[in-house]
Every structure is written in C-alpha cells, then in structure tokens.
Specification:
The complex is a heterodimer of chains A (48) and B (803).
Chain A lengths: L3 H24 L8 H5 L8
Chain B lengths: L1 E2 L2 E2 L5 H12 L5 H4 L19 H7 L1 E2 L4 E8 L5 H9 L7 E7 L4 E7 L5 H10 L4 E3 L4 H36 L4 H20 L3 H12 L6 H21 L6 H34 L4 E5 L5 E5 L8 E4 L8 E6 L2 E4 L1 H4 L5 E3 L4 E2 L4 E2 L4 E7 L5 H14 L7 H28 L1 H14 L3 H20 L2 E3 L3 H7 L3 E4 L1 H5 E12 L4 H8 L5 H7 L16 E5 L3 E6 L2 E6 L1 H6 L5 H8 L5 E7 L2 E12 L3 H10 L3 E5 L4 H11 L8 E2 L4 H16 L5 H4 L3 E5 L5 H6 L2 E4 L5 H6 L2 E3 L5 H36 L5 H24 L9
Parallel strand pairs in B: 18-25, 18-27, 25-26, 27-28, 28-29
Antiparallel strand pairs in B: 1-2, 3-4, 4-6, 4-7, 5-6, 8-9, 8-10, 10-16, 11-14, 11-16, 12-13, 12-15, 17-29, 19-24, 20-21, 21-22, 22-23, 23-24
The chains are: A mainly alpha (48), B alpha+beta (803).
Chain lengths: 48, 803
C-alpha cells in the first residue's frame, strides 16, 4: 500500500495537467465554436 | 431553360428543377407574389465604403506583414456546403489569405493581404458567391462577454476535476476498510482539494454574498457562502484534529452543480444578445456622399460630417439629419414618430435619420450625423437608461432573506440545544451538518437551468431573450403598453375596405402597379391580398396625374382613379356618391370612376394585424392589462383601440404621444403601482412595453420588460430585453406561454427543495444526519431538481404550460 504515496501525487499531477490543458483550450477560444471544426475535418484536401 | 419568353440561367440543377416544378403547376404568379426576395448575387457599389480609412479605423485590425483582419457577418449561410465553399474561397480570390467561418453564428473572420487586394473586392467576391457580407462592429461589450464566458468555462473544468478527485478519496474513506495512515493521508488530500475548489471556482459565491452584503440586500449567494465557509472550516478543523467528519465531498459537488447552472444560463443569454447584435450589422451603414466634383461616392456613415451633401436613394433609410437641397419625395417617419401616413417633403424641408425615403432620390445637406442626430441622441439616452436600470428581483432572490434568517436561526437553536444536551463538540458537528444540508443548492440550480433551456428553445423559434429574469416578469400579470404602428398594425399603408363595384379592382391594381406612391402600392397589393379574383386586367394605357391619381384605359373604358379633387378636376360628379358612402368614411380614400361615373371606393389605412385581436385576448386571459400609446394621430389610434377593445376598462389608449411621453407613461405605471409599499400585491405589477420604433426606445428601456418586435429600429432592439424575430403578437404569446411554463416548473422545484430542506433540517436538528446521509441526500435532491428543470424543458414548447 505504500505505493499510494507515489501513485496519488502522480494521479493528481496528471489531473492537474488535464485541468491546465482544458483551461488553456477554453481561454484560447477552441471551445467557442464546436460545430464548424467538427465538420471542417471531414472535407477532403485532395486539390490542395 | 426558357420561361416567360426569355432564356434563364440557374445556379444549380436543384434551383432549375424547383423553378420548373413551380411553372409546371401553373404557379408562375409566385414570382409576382413573393416579397423581399433579392436576386442572388446582386453586387452593388455599396461595398466601396469598406475601403474608406474611417471604416478601417473601426472595423479592421492590421497585422504585421501587411495582413488585415476583419469580422464579417455573412447572409445566407445554411449548412456544411456553405462552410466548404466559403473556406475554399481563398484559393480562388486573389489576395484573400484565409477565411474562417463560425457556422453557428454565420460570422467569418477574413484575413487579406492589403498589398494585393482590398476589403471591398473581397466583399464583392463573397456577394457574388451568394453570401452578402456585413461588417461586424467590434464591441467592448462582446469581448468582455466572451472573456467572462471563457473564464467561467475554465473554472467549471477545474471544479469538475477537483470534485472527481475528492469523490475518489471519499469512496475510500466511506468504505471503512482503510488503514489509519492512509485514512489520514486521504483526509488531508480531501481537505487540500476541497479548499482549492471552494477558494478558487467557488469564490464567485463569496464575491456575490459580499456584494449583496455591501449593498445591504439579500442574495441566495449568502446562504451558499455560509454553507461553504462553515463546511470548509469545520472540515479543516476535523482534519487537523484527526477525528470527526469532513465535508469536502459534499462541498465540491455543490460548487460544481451551482457553476454548471450558472454557466448554462450565462451562455444562453450571451447567445441571444449576440444574435441581436448581429442583426444590427445587417443594416447598411454606408452613405452616398456627393463629392465636390459632383460624383457620388459610397463612404461609411462615420466619414460624413456637417455640411456634406448626401444622396438618399428611394427605399433606403435616411442616414443623417439634414435639409433637402434637391428632390421631392415621401418619407415614412413611423419609426421616429409613430405616424402611419407617409409625409411628403421637398426643398428646404428637414429630414431625420432613421426615417425611410419611399419614392424618389433626394439630396440632403447634412446638419447632424452619427451621435449628433436625433436618433443618435435617443440611442444615448437608451444606453444610459439601461446602464442605470435596477435589475428585476426574481422569486429566488426574494427567498434569500427568509432563507438566510431561517438557516442562521435554526443553526443557533441547534447549537444551543445540543450544547445543553450533549456538549459543545457534538453540537458543532450537528450544526455544521444542518447548515450544509439545508444549503439552497436546489433552489439556485432550478432557476438558471429551467431558464437557460427555455431561452435556448425560444431562440430557435426566433424569439431572442437577453435576460433570464424577464421570463419571470412575463409569467405574472403585468400591465402592458403597446405601440400601435408596426406592432399591433402592419405599419404600412394598406387597403382596409372596398366599397362599390368589385370588378374594377383588377384594372386598378394593374394600373397602380407602376406607381411608386404608397397609396399606389397599397392598391397594387389588392391582387395579392385576394381581394381581386381574376388577377390583373392590364390596361391599354396608363397616365399618372402627378401625385393625385391615375387615368387608365382598359377594354375601351376610361378609368379615373384618385382623390376627390382629381374627380372634381375631371368634371366627375362626386356629391351623390358622397351622400351614399361618404358619411362614415375615415382615413385616406381613393375613388374610382368608370367613364365619368363613380363606381367604387377604397379606404386605406394602417391595417390591424389579423392575429392581434386573438393574441390580445389570450394575454388578457393571463391577467395582462393592456394599454396603447402611439405617436400617431388620434383618429387612427382610436380606430385600432376600438377594433381591439383597448382603452376600455382599466387600460388606456393615448394618441399623439412623444417618445418622452411614452417613457413617462411607463414610469407612471410603474410608480403608480409600485410606489406604495402598503399594497404588497400591487407592488408585483410589472410593466411590459411592446414596440418597434426609435420613438419607443426610451420606453422599452424604462419598462421592466421591453419587447421589440420584428422590423424594429436598431435603437429599439438595443433597448429591449426581448427581440421577436417574427412579426405580430403571435411570438409574444408564445413567449409568455414559455415563461409561464418555466415559472411553474421552477415553482415545482422550489416546492420540492423546500420540502426536502425542511425534512433534512428536522433530521439534522434531531442529530440524525450523519455525513454519509448528507452526502447522499444532497446530490439526490439536486439531481431531482436537475431532472425536473431539464426534463420538463424537453417537452414541446407550446405545451409546456402545465409542466
């Protein structure tokens, strides 16, 4: 069970990273428009 | 394909098929009937104004390397195909570097190379592809909104992560199968995460409570803040002591649920506000300025100043206040004054910004532009009024005071009783459990949730609600003041009544079709309104007698169509007809003579919308008390009031009311019922104002709830809390039904929450609420409320009444 002392900080660190990533996404406006990018990725870029 | 004797071209086989189907069914009159349909790809010189430095200063952001950026609202964006097409454009339009479309909002961010092209040519390309662009003015309010929305979302994410981690630890702690060392570790970790959640995303509640405290008012944030603070402190003390309960699982859950409710509501309100702002951008702001060399150039409205000469085309709105230098035309001034009849103005007459030039081109010497115009000053008043407005107090806020007092009172009782019974330690524990368990979490969630769902659904039906608190006001029985022109009536001249030989109207409609005069247009519309069965009877010749009427020859008969004066001039006997029909006639009249003998008469006026009466009676059924305030002349006002039964009983019908008068009327209604605290029932009487014109803007802003109806002026849209994107009162009734649905749903939730809280408080007082019970009870109550608020919202909009 001693491993908990190592595992929990790692888990919290990962959670912290996820939160930081989410906050960066929210602040940089990536979540403002959830519709267009979802469709955009389906377009073919064949004639580029 | 060939149709109507000429070669026609189509954008795609779909359109060609549709046209073929319409023609194939013999429905070609569709193309005569349809109104407001603009041919696709009309490219006019209006876009030249986009290159003016005065425009660029406000709308264009310059980046390094000669790149410029601007936001354009694109008309006609529907679906993924539009997105695909638009985002491929940079490859085909020289100088256009990138175009990024937000499909939901129809707003595109365009970047272009200033050295290679201009914004106007980009705009023309977009228009040529069928998406006429309209520049979106960057506004401080919008960027502030978007910043706060992003912050809310970020904090919501943090609250969710913290809650999830605390819950994991709580599971281990509640299981009981845990070694003391790890139990201590878990308790400390819970305390750390829980306090982080309360202090960071949860700080909005402390801020709200503090603001309310400073303003000496009551707010539901206060009991929440008390619960959070008491719970955190007690939990922390117990963690340090190493025994007793910690409450961080309940607290983090509370913070998350409350934040979700708030975020949803804020988002829906921002959406609606933004949709209204985008509608502003559709109004063209360019002005045709006459340069010194006599040429006419399109410039942005900002570039025009006093003393300039501007040209106003027919059917465009007048952009400035000024004096007519040349030309003569009729103006629709209803937006400013409420006057329904068009007014003729010529050399030396003044015209005001916001009015519409109806018939012919005039040149106007500018006396005031922008903020200096009368309409600009009204807008400024509106902004001032809406800034200083006292927010509506909803029932949830009204609950705050008894709530706080009850919580504090019960807490003290609990503390004292249990201290006497079993010592301080147990007493504190029971009191903390009580405070947390009765926290008005359910109450605070129910209102924003139910409201945000209603606002979202209403928005899809063209009803844009800018604030959630107005729904509650609309669900009551407020006093309502209606504007007449454009609200209860169509706002334009129409034939209200015809007398005499009905067979002549086919000729009249056809003869008047080419006349730009508003009366002529109203007569031409006779065909569309189904008054004439046989459709057009095209006359062999038509002669327009200046503005007095028309002489037409059809089928060998000579028709004289016009005023009484024209009849007298042409030697047609009027007196006999007058004795027969003239007595009761009101409003503008058009006489028709066939071969020198009067045979028919049309009476024109601003017609009442067909659904107004039914809508009004439904509103009265909800307990609304309706009045009428119009800037129009007494006679048409009295007629409309009469038709709709307004001004009888407690309501009033006032004519010739100035914009200031309308505002005073609204304020008098508010003060009359709200001033005396003696009558608590009457104090709840809210005042709703429904209108469309600039002359209504001040009243819209002064009312508890301002409702701007379709086709309204920009000032009225800015002032109103609600904008109805469809004409008439139908959407208003729909809105009121939805509001009543929301309110009854919220009342359900509140009742449920109150029952739950009373029960929980009783248990806690008896010392029966262990933290596990609290931890289970609290989310159960919240989730019940959640599902009522959301689940009820899923039901059909029209039937949401009894939910």
């Amino acid at each position: 069970m001693g491993v908990l002392f190592v595992v929990i900080p790692i888990a919290l660190l990962l959670a912290g990273l996820a939160v930081a990533a989410f906050m960066w996404m929210a602040r940089s406006g990536q979540l403002d428009d959830l519709e267009s990018p979802a469709r955009r990725m389906l377009f073919d870029d064949d004639d580029r | 394909m060939r149709a109507a004797g000429r070669e026609e071209q189509f954008c795609c086989t779909g359109c060609e098929a549709a046209r073929a189907a319409i023609l194939g069914c013999g429905l070609d009159r569709y193309y005569e009937m349809r109104e407001g349909a603009e041919p696709v790809g009309v490219v006019d010189d209006r876009y030249a104004a986009l290159d003016d430095p005065a425009f660029a200063e406000r709308y264009v952001t310059a980046h390094a390397g000669g790149l410029c950026e601007s936001r354009l609202c694109l008309q006609g964006v529907h679906c993924v195909a539009c997105l695909w097409l638009l985002e491929k454009l940079p490859r085909h339009v020289a100088g256009l570097v990138s175009l990024e479309l937000d499909l939901g909002r129809s707003v595109a961010v365009v970047r272009w190379d200033a050295a290679a092209t201009t914004l106007s040519s980009v705009a023309r390309s977009l228009a040529r592809f069928g998406y006429p662009p309209h520049p979106v003015e960057p506004s401080e309010a919008r960027s502030a909104r978007s910043r706060s929305e992003k912050r809310q979302l970020a904090e919501l994410g943090a609250a969710a992560a913290l809650m999830g981690n605390v819950m994991l630890l709580a599971f281990a702690l509640y299981s009981g199968e845990i070694e003391p060392t790890y139990e201590r570790l878990f308790r400390w970790l819970s305390a750390g995460l829980g306090i982080a959640s309360v202090a960071w995303p949860g700080r909005v509640f402390f801020r709200g409570a503090w603001a309310a405290l400073r303003a000496r008012s009551w707010h539901l944030d206060a009991p929440i803040a008390i619960a959070l603070a008491v719970g955190s402190v007690a939990g922390l003390v117990n963690v340090v002591r190493g025994s007793g309960e910690i409450y961080f699982d309940s607290l983090t859950m509370l913070v998350l649920l409350l934040l979700i409710g708030r975020w949803l509501q804020a988002r829906q309100q921002h959406r609606a506000t933004e949709a209204v702002e985008l509608l502003f951008s559709l109004t063209p702001r360019s002005v045709r300025r006459v340069e010194d060399d006599g040429s006419v150039r399109e410039v942005p409205a900002e570039a025009v100043s006093r003393g300039d000469l501007v040209e106003v085309l027919a059917e465009r709105s007048v952009p400035v206040d000024g004096v007519i230098e040349s030309g003569r035309s009729r103006f629709d001034e209803s937006a400013l004054t409420g006057e329904s009849a068009p007014i003729e103005r010529g050399d030396g007459d003044t015209v005001a910004a916001g009015t519409t030039n109806l018939s012919s081109v005039v040149r106007v010497r500018v006396t005031a532009s922008g903020r200096e115009t009368r309409i600009g000053r009204i807008l400024e008043t509106v902004e001032r009024l809406s800034r200083s407005r006292v927010p509506l107090i909803g029932s949830a806020e009204r609950l705050a005071k008894p709530f706080v007092l009850t919580v504090v009172g019960l807490g003290l009782v609990c503390l004292v009783v249990h201290t006497l019974l079993s010592g301080v330690e147990t007493a504190v524990e029971h009191t903390v459990a009580l405070v947390i368990v009765v926290c008005p979490c359910a109450v605070s969630i129910a209102t924003p949730l139910a409201t945000s769902f209603a606002i979202g659904r209403l928005a899809t039906r063209g009803i844009l609600v800018k604030g959630g608190d107005v729904l509650e006001a609309l669900a009551g029985s407020p006093a309502v003041v209606f504007d007449k022109t454009g609200t209860l009536t169509d706002g334009r001249f129409a034939v209200r009544e015809t007398v005499g030989d009905a067979s002549v109207w086919g000729v009249v409609a056809a003869a008047e079709a080419g006349v730009a005069h508003p009366v002529g247009r109203a007569l031409a519309r006779l065909v569309k309104r189904g008054v004439v069965d046989d459709g057009w009877v095209v006359p062999e010749s038509v002669e327009v007698m200046s503005s007095r009427g028309v002489v037409a020859v059809a089928g060998g008969d000579e028709f004289v169509i016009g005023s009484k004066r024209l009849m007298r001039e042409r030697g047609i006997a009027v007196d006999a007809w007058e004795r027969l029909h003239g007595g009761s006639a009101v409003g503008a009249r058009v006489l028709v003579a066939r071969n020198g003998e009067l045979v028919a008469e049309a009476r024109l006026g601003d017609a009442t919308r067909p659904e107004s009466a039914a809508s009004l009676s439904e509103l009265r059924g909800f307990g609304w008390e309706a009045s009428l305030a119009s800037g129009d002349a007494p006679e048409p006002v009295a007629r409309v009031a009469d038709e709709l039964g307004l001004g009888q009983g407690c309501g009033q019908a006032a004519a010739g009311v100035t914009p200031e008068g309308k505002r005073a009327m609204v304020e008098a209604l508010r003060a009359g019922d709200g001033g005396s605290d003696a009558d608590a029932g009457a104090r709840d009487r809210r005042v709703v104002f429904v209108g469309d014109g600039v002359n209504d803007a001040a009243a819209l802003a002064a009312a508890d709830v301002g409702v701007a109806v379709h086709g309204g002026a920009e000032a009225s849209m800015a002032a109103a809390d609600v904008y109805l994107n469809r004409g008439g009162l139908g959407p208003l009734v729909e809105l009121v039904r939805a509001a009543r649905g929301v309110t009854s749903r919220v009342r359900w939730c509140l009742g449920l929450a109150a029952t739950y809280n009373a029960l929980a408080a009783g248990l806690a007082l008896a010392g029966l609420v262990s933290p596990v019970v609290a931890a289970v009870l609290m989310p159960v109550s919240s989730l019940t409320v959640f599902s009522i608020a959301v689940g009820g919202g899923r039901r059909g909009l029209g039937r949401s009444e009894g939910a």
